[in-house]
Amino acid sequence: MDVLTEALRWLNDPLNWTGSQGVLALTRTHLEISAVAVAAALVVALPAGLWLGHRGRGATVGVVVANTTRALPTLALLTLLAAAGWFGATATALACAVFAVPPILANAVTGVEGVEPDVRDAARGLGMSGGRVLWTVEVPLALPLIAAGIRTGAVQVLATVPLVALVGGTSLGTIVVSGFATQRYGKALAGGILVAGLCLLVEGLLALAERAVTPTGLRLRDRAAASDARTDTRSRRRAPVAAAVRPGSNGAAPSP
Amino acid sequence: MPSGPVLAAAANPWFSWEYLERNGADVLRFTQQHASLTVQAVLIAFVVALPLAALAHLRPRLAGPVLAGTGVLYTIPSLALFALLAPLTSTSRETVLIGLVVYALLVLVRNVLVGLQGVDPAVRDAARGMGYGRLRMLLSVELPQAVPAVVTGLRLATVSTVALVTVGVVVGYGGLGQLMFRGFRSSYHAEIMTATMLCLALALLADLVLALLGRVLTPWLRGSGAPRAVPSAREEAAWTS
Questions:
Q1: Is residue B233, in this structure, part of any structural domain at all?
Q2: For residue B193, what is the domain's CATH number?
């Protein structure tokens, strides 16, 4: 295919990789903006999510927040900010952070809220204060879901940052957008491959990190549930749903 | 003569009826493009998703790969996906449409599958006891039971499709995104704000219509306190549906 060879030729040209607008520099900017955005989202969403989950009144908040941001186009937010005079890396990062808040918040809320009431009662019965229950019981048990939310948020941000190129910012999306703008579709394709590759790579790394922070006990429990499901078809109901929920936690919303 | 700031504010307001009056035809055209892209994408995705999810449900072995595959595909940003599709379809309306269908498909397959798997085993046993075969059970027992999850999936898919259409601006078929981009280029505040508001309104309207449709399709859930509606609401909250 013509465009494909053009893309491969573009990727093979060392001149496209070095320099201030080269792939390496753009990747670095991309990752820097993403890191700032995720950090900002964490600062806002994590404490709020844990608190709402602990209080047990988070579900409605989660739904409302999640639905509103899902309906708000990324492009709208970026153009609005840019038109209001908010240019630069910080503004971009803040705009992208908006899209990482809902998954982090919602997963923290449901994770903490979903801890079995018996476990919580037992901790209370031992005389633990609310704060200690949260830190020593609820958070460790909710860790897999919280980590999944952070992972979703991070990938969401990584996927949002390319759009910044449409309003004049720099990121790997710059390659795609300038490729389309100059009708060099090979270049656009090369940019697409790079962006998708970066997202898949980071997603894989974060999935490993998520696995690493999941307490061994929880992992063993999940494995037991899975093997139960395999042997007993009647009790299949619970386990596959759980299985669908856990890996599925990387996003009900498609990447912008 | 009004003072400086007032004049500046009046020159480029965020909200302006005048803009709508002058550009009504444009706004209408792009709104129509936006709506038609959304409706087509969700409909096509739904037609493809239903049998796919049913297949994954009947052959549980396939469920794992299907869900894992959707997870991986989600990771690819829409901008990158449009760039990857462009060589195949050239820069046309189809590029955007295919991309939108892919994302909507993922949401729908996952939700329908979760809905089918979530059917109460007692209900399934009862159907089996009445001599229902596998296919008949799927069509007349499990699918109706999964309607709330399917509707949740449709709502999610539709709302995020409305937002995603705007990214189509890179290939020139972004619906209201086209207006946002044009407004940004000429730094015309009212144009950006109008397009944004219309986008949100479109998403809200579609969501309401689908919610009503869900209510109409599930008469048995009404009036009884609807305990089954709770899990689907939680699913939505968990960002995991």
A1: no
A2: 1.10.3720.10
